[in-house]
Amino acid sequence: MRKFPKALLGAIAIHGSYFVTTFAVGYVKTMNHKPDWDAAWANVENLPSEVTFGYAPSPLIYVGTFLATVLACRIILGIYDKLSSNSSEAST
After folding, report:
1. The Cα angle at residue 28 between residues 25 and 34, in degrees rounded to 5
2. Exposed, middle or buried, 80 (CB in 10 Å: 0-12/13-18/19+)?
3. Could you list the mean pLDDT of each consecutive 10-residue stretch along the chain, which spans 92 residues?
4. Are 15 and 66 in contact (CB under 8 A)?
5. Is 73 exposed, middle or buried (0-12, 13-18, 19+ CB in 10 A)?
6. pLDDT at position 50, please?
7. Is 69 within 8 Å of 6 (Cβ atoms)?
8. Of 6, 31, 41, 51, which one has the greatest count of Cβ atoms within 10 A?
């Protein structure tokens, strides 16, 4: 198999595991959150008047990291092939 499809599969696996892990951690945190209503209402001045749900990065960042991961996987596969071919030539 050529190196580029292998690098593409590697990048898909790395990004897939990142997204699955991120969603799993968020789900577990959401399910285990137990708000303390009594403590929150005891000090009403500190309650926020607006709700924010977090940071959403630009999708272009994910495209850039995906392409960089494909390139990194391709370089690693090239180095691995070069080292494995050198070790097989040295043993014969």
Report:
1. 130
2. exposed
3. 89 95 96 84 72 81 93 94 78 58
4. yes
5. buried
6. 78
7. no
8. 6
Closest residue by Cα to residue 66 from 23, 8, 22: 8
Whole-Å CA distances, 21 to 5, 15, 16, 68, 78 = 24, 10, 8, 20, 28
Q: How far is CA 28 from the centre of its chain?
A: 17
Interatomic CA distance for residues 17 and 78, integer angstroms: 23
Query: 34: which DSSP letter?
Result: -
Q: Is the dihedral of CA 73, 77, 78, 80 positive or negative?
A: positive
Question: How is residue 37 written in tokens?
Answer: 């209503």
Sign of CA dihedral 82, 86, 89, 91: negative
In angstroms, the CA 92 to CA 84 distance is: 13
